[in-house]
Amino acid sequence: MISDILAPGLRVVFCGINPGKSSAHTGFHFAHPGNRFWKVIHQAGFTDRQLRPEEELQLLDTRCGITMLVERPTVQASEVALQELRSGGRELVRKIEEYQPQALAVLGKQAFELAFNQRGAKWGKQAMTIGTTQVWVLPNPSGLNRATLDKLVAAYRELDDAWQPAASSGERRLSRDGHLNAIKKAPRRELFNRL
């Protein structure tokens, strides 16, 4: 079983589709040697050095977290059923409403579209939010994705750059009390009631 890496006050939560067999075996997110997640988030500016999967908890020091849409491990994400994605989307909304990070980055356009019933999604920042959390769609860093490392880094850097001024000025950082108040006041979007 792979555990979420979540805490109050995060600037971004990266949401993978589901664990691969390597991750399921090791117990760490994005553990397959061909997965470029750790390299991409480092080169995009989220971490000062490239973390190894077994160092995943150090992500919290950078105010980043990880979760997944579906807990069931598979060889390929294409093995995940539509109903699993829809159910995972509802559970993800619950997690995000509880923790209210500044941004949620769903790693994979097709998974996002299916989980949230959002046809025609574009890459990057979405119009929808979950409470006060901005939603982003970024390319999946899996080695099966044909996107080049440079393209992945550029997409992730756009998200990192969007939060640099806020992170340095503290404008969007919530105290623990403010965080709890934000959770209580965050309205459920009509979109998610359709799921």
Automatic annotation (TrEMBL):
Gene3D superfamilies: Uracil-DNA glycosylase-like domain. It is an enzyme of class 3 (hydrolase). It catalyses: Specifically hydrolyzes mismatched double-stranded DNA and polynucleotides, releasing free uracil. It comes from the Bacteria. One of its GO terms (cellular component) is cytoplasm. SMART domains: UDG (SM00986), UreE_C (SM00987). InterPro entries: MUG/TDG, MUG_bact, Uracil-DNA_glycosylase-like, Uracil-DNA_glycosylase-like_sf. Transmembrane segments: none annotated. The keyword Hydrolase applies. The keyword Oxidoreductase does not apply. Residues 3-164 form the Uracil-DNA glycosylase-like domain. Keywords: Cytoplasm, DNA damage, DNA excision, DNA repair, DNA-binding, Glycosidase, Hydrolase. One of its GO terms (biological process) is base-excision repair, AP site formation. It is found in: Cytoplasm. One of its GO terms (molecular function) is uracil DNA N-glycosylase activity. Its EC number is 3.2.2.28. CDD domains: UDG-F2_TDG_MUG. NCBIfam families: PRK10201.1 (NF007570). PANTHER family: G/T AND G/U MISMATCH-SPECIFIC DNA GLYCOSYLASE (PTHR12159), G_T MISMATCH-SPECIFIC THYMINE DNA GLYCOSYLASE (PTHR12159:SF9). Excises ethenocytosine and uracil, which can arise by alkylation or deamination of cytosine, respectively, from the corresponding mispairs with guanine in ds-DNA. It is capable of hydrolyzing the carbon-nitrogen bond between the sugar-phosphate backbone of the DNA and the mispaired base. The complementary strand guanine functions in substrate recognition. Required for DNA damage lesion repair in stationary-phase cells. Binds DNA as a monomer. Belongs to the uracil-DNA glycosylase (UDG) superfamily. TDG/mug family. This is G/U mismatch-specific DNA glycosylase.
